[in-house]
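quick q for whoever's on today - can somebody do inverse folding on this one?? i tried earlier but teh output was garbage lol. tokens:
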């Protein structure tokens, strides 16, 4: 996985006509200090260490043995009653499964969910289509509790905030998907939905972080 991350970085830099040294240039920031702490030997950011960091992060994206997976394979005791209730809400009243579906809980499509500032072009910066303005790719929900903050701009800090955001129908924004509308979940339904989302965590990813 580290080799794959290295290849991806190198290819991206080559396509952009960018020298590798640009990656590690610039002022020292808080994120760089954090990188120094977690990188091997406190070497600081380099192409090799960035590849290591990306590979470590990507390992947390792999989820093969969550409690939901065990439940789906037939272990009906793998989920608690609250988590099962959350699954029903996820598929039904919450309408989450309309976009978060399939093995990775993501439809691989682009949606404008109303998040972020109006100045962010989203996918339209690639396609040039005004209908794609503010649209971003649906992310997987596997191991979702391990990867705050949320939304494409990191504007929401917790899953509770994400649930509240969708429950109220998101924020007004031109081109927002018609599927983002007020839901009206009760506090208990929100707690159950949160419990279900956490059941998508593969604990082996936590141990490898």
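ok took a stab at it. sequence:
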């Amino acid at each position: 996985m580290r080799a794959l991350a290295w290849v991806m970085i190198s290819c991206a830099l080559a396509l952009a006509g960018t020298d590798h040294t640009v990656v590690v240039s610039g002022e020292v920031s808080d994120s760089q200090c954090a990188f120094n702490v977690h990188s091997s030997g406190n070497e600081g950011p380099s192409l090799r260490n960035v590849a290591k960091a990306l590979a470590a992060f990507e390992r947390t994206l792999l989820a093969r043995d969550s409690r939901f997976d065990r439940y789906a394979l037939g272990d009906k005791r793998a989920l608690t009653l609250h988590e099962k209730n959350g699954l029903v809400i996820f598929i039904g009243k919450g309408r989450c499964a309309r976009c978060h579906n399939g093995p990775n809980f993501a439809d691989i499509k682009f949606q404008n969910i109303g998040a972020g500032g109006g100045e962010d072009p989203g996918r339209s910066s690639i396609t040039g289509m005004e209908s794609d303005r503010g649209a971003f790719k649906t992310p997987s929900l596997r191991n979702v509790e391990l990867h705050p903050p949320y939304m494409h701009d990191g504007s929401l800090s917790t899953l509770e905030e994400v649930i509240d955001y969708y429950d109220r129908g998101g924020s007004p924004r031109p081109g927002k998907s018609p599927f983002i509308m007020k839901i009206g979940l009760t506090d208990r339904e929100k707690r159950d939905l949160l419990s279900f989302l956490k059941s998508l965590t593969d604990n082996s990813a936590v141990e490898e972080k």
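fwiw The chain has a mean pLDDT of 81. also The chain has two domains: 2-59, 67-208. so keep that in mind when u check it
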